[in-house]
Amino acid sequence: MSVFATEHKATPGYLDVAANANGAEKGLLMHRALQRVTSPRPHLVEIGPGGGAAVAYLAERLQMSDRSDHANDITLTLIEVPGVVSRSLTEAMNAFDRTGTCTLVEGFAQDIDTLLDRRADVIGASALLHEVYSYAGGYGGIHSLMRKIPRVLTGEGYFAYRDVYAVRAPSLHERVTHAYDGPSWLQFLRMFLPHYIREGTHPYHHAEDEVVARQGSRITPVDDLSRTTGAVIGAPVGLFREVQRHYITFRDHVWRSGVLGFVPVLDGQLAADWLDARTGHKRVRYVLTGSDWLPRSHKAMLLAVSEPYGDRYTVDGDIFDECTDVALTAFLTAAERGDTACLAIWEAWSTREGRETYAYLTLGELITAFAVNSATEESVLLPVEPEDVLVQQRNYYNRYLTKRLPNPLDDAKQLVLFRRIPFIDTETLGQAMTTVQGWCSKRNLTRVYRAINTGEGT
After folding, report:
1. Which of 47, 64, 177, 251 is the least crowded, having the fewest Cβ atoms under 10 Å away?
2. Which of 44, 59, 48, 41 has its CA nearest to residue 19?
3. Which has the closest alpha carbon to 112: 101, 96, 128, 100?
4. Residue 274, pLDDT score
5. Closest Cα to residue 19, out of 94, 86, 104?
6. What beta strand segments (E) does 10-95 contain?
7. How far apart are CA 281 and CA 286, in angstroms?
């Protein structure tokens, strides 16, 4: 079992900035569930609040809602790994305390049944399952958590879950062929993929999951890939999803470090200066840093296509991405050669995120796994309304990926609002089965049907 990277997960630069975004999306389904709860004293629980983005969103929504007159009757319990704290979470908790009662409990998600002093009406979590998968026993840890969730919910409580969107495929093990020709991507593949396969917690261990790379029609070990020759690689589609998602998080990490000589505005109002939001085209605002290890030509190239904007510069997002990829190639090459500053940044990201499996279940598999593992003799967890299953596209990243990769996979978030449905409520159960038909394969629907009718969750 891997050790949770507490030190790296709790750094202010990560929790207060990188992990403190998208509060409206993280709290959306929790707030929607709260509106359906009839309890006069609702108990909400968020597992892994991070920088407190969802807490702040809920506090704001409660101040505006019809429940504002009874806000003091709403309790929010936060469950966080010991040692993971942040200034932004403290501020969010203080904001919630002005509308309700918020408390922080230290512990691990897999121990939720021992951490709560009363049942919850709504439990919310964002990007939780990949943490449990990576650090708490793989699929066994995931399934154990799925069995515990309904035990700590009230009779018809809700579990709101948000995570990385997987792929449009029956399974993440479906074998496909992808091509790469960008130098930064080839260098990243060379450094990341062998490390991930060797040290990461992932499900790609079968013979048919082998990664086969070819350059110039010759099979080439991934760690020997040249960044000057296009590569054709055969592997499970889920593994390509890992490469793509990790490249994006790595790029953001290097941006924030300032080592490239420039730092874009990635959060707040200035980060959404859209030229065309539908297509993901935007202007990027950035500041220069004192870092000067890159050749001066890199910074000069960026400045030549930018315009001054107060104490910042502004540039077309497509151009900024192009300049970033050139700089990342140089950065990765320097890290591989042992440059002290670059290697330290690479290793910090690798320790915090490079071993984690982000997407291991498609939406259909996620719904099925929750239903099968939560089913008891009395109830099951399923989404009920059609709007309880959502896919939120990341248009900016998708625009970039489409321009860089011949076979881009959608970058998005998948959100599901599960309800604990008693079997005696046949009307709601029938509505739920109608909802999941659009997401689950016939084989998975059969598994759900069997779990419901036998009360056997495995």
Report:
1. 64
2. 48
3. 128
4. 95
5. 86
6. 43-47, 75-80
7. 16
